Amino acid sequence: MNHKKRLIVANWKMKLSNRESINLAEEIVDRFAGMYLNERNIEMIICPSHISLAEVGKIVDRSPIKLGVQNIFYHNTGSYTGQISPAVAHELGAEYAIIGHSEFRKYGKDTNEDVHQKIKAALDNELVPIVCVGETFDEYHDKKTEVIIIDQVTKALEDIKLKENQRIVIAYEPVWVIGSGQAIRHNIVEYIIQIIIHTTIDLDQSFADKFQVIYGGSVDEKNINDFIIGNILTGVIVGNNSLKVDSFMKIVQNIKL
Ligand code: PGA
Q: What is the pTM of this model?
């Protein structure tokens, strides 16, 4: 696999007001300006809540930082009250779309089929899908992690054909680790990442140089380097620790490349 960038995805979920989102985006743009993200091979992606996407988009537009949307629908326009158009997300400057986050699988009732349709819609709208997969605590406890991961990855990517300039990010996020403050042991993550890589390449050899795998779940300044492993594991999603500029900066500062 030929991966150029380490992805650091800030997932702000629904945790900030519009004013707080604007302030945090401005602080991040100011404070990260001197961190040589491009030179350090880091792509930082800020995913604010939908309501603040446009405003945060205008702020990060002045910087190398990219904008991501936390969810999309699989149609661009139509009678779909309450949905998020991927075309409009792109129009507002988003370059990435989180798809199938466990919180949206739970509260938005996203199925594996929805996730599949949303990946296609993202690709059609020049959004790089960040596809989240992961097992719940019960599934982990019942030793079903491998089966769940293979099933989610297969159903997400089956029949997807990537054009020359398209790519996909797969995020392994053990559901029970998210927000717990206690990340999973990195040797377990490495094992699951290998399963994701093999499943993806088994589906279609041509994915090989067009996808990358990242990790999410209680990433912090101390454990960040456990989850950046050569060309195998090439980035993280950060939830809680991306909500304050200091904790987020420390994570990025501590990345050894
Ligand atoms: P966390 O969230 O870093 O707070 O565990 C990660 C995520 O949900 O993407």
A: 0.96
pLDDT tens for 212-256 read: 999 999 999 999 999 999 989 999 999 999 999 999 999 999 998
Would you kindly state where each structural domain of the chain is located, as residue ranges?
A: 6-253
Rounded (10°) CA dihedral 131, 90, 46, 180: -30
What φ, ψ does residue 182 adopt, rounded to 5°?
-130, 100
Report the atom number in ligand 1 closest to the C-alpha of 178: 5
CB-facing half-sphere around the CA of 241: CA atoms within 13 A: 26
Q: How confident is the model at residue 257 (pLDDT cuts 50, 70, 90)?
A: confident
Please work out, in degrees rounded to the nearest 5, the angle formed at the alpha carbon of residue 162 by the alpha carbons of 160 and 163.
145
Backbone φ/ψ region at 109: left (φ over 0), alpha (ψ -120 to 50), beta: left
**Percent of the chain that is helix, strand, coil (3-state, to 5):** 45, 20, 40
From 101, 103, 116, 135, active-site residue: 101
CATH no. of 6-253: 3.20.20.70
Residue 2 · residue 209 · CB < 8 Å: yes
Per-residue model confidence as pLDDT tens digits over 20-79: 999 999 999 999 887 788 888 999 999 999 999 999 999 999 899 999 999 999 999 999
Ligand 1 pocket residue status of 173, Cβ below 6 Å: yes
Atom of ligand 1 nearest to the CA of 237: 9
Q: How far is CA 107 from CA 101, 103, 209, 237, in A?
A: 10, 6, 33, 19
